[in-house]
Amino acid sequence: ERLEAASAHNALARKFAEKMPNCVFDDPYEYAPFRDETIFLDDGVHFNQRGYDVYTAFFQNILKDELAKF
After folding, report:
1. pTM to 2 decimals?
2. How many other C-beta atoms are found inside a 10 Å radius of the C-beta of residue 54?
3. Cα(57)–Cα(51) distance, rounded to whole angstroms?
4. Which of 22, 35, 56, 59 has its Cα between 20 and 30 A from that of 66?
5. Residues 6 or more apart from 25 whose CB is under 8 A from it?
């Protein structure tokens, strides 16, 4: 259920980003580690420490690639 809601939200965000110049949208749920239920606290919404480690690695990689363009 959480993944379905996130996918719907991300589809809208992707459409918006496609209309904006110089805007990049990378769907974190296309990155397999974000699909691992063990990275969330019991509420299923917030990350645990491992989740934040995955989150950090994901965005470091994106920012590295984007900043290399300048």
Report:
1. 0.66
2. 19
3. 10
4. 35
5. 10, 13, 14, 16, 17, 18
Report in angstroms the alpha-carbon separations of 13 from 10, 17, 60: 5, 6, 20
Helix then strand count (H, E) for the chain reads: 2, 0
Q: How many CA atoms lie within 13 A of 26 on its CB side?
A: 13
Q: In which residue are the tokens 């690639």 written?
A: 65
Place of tokens 């809208």: 12
Q: DSSP assignment, residue 68?
A: T
Please give the pLDDT value at position 47.
Answer: 94
| Sequence-separated (6 or more) residues with CB below 8 Å from residue 36 | 54
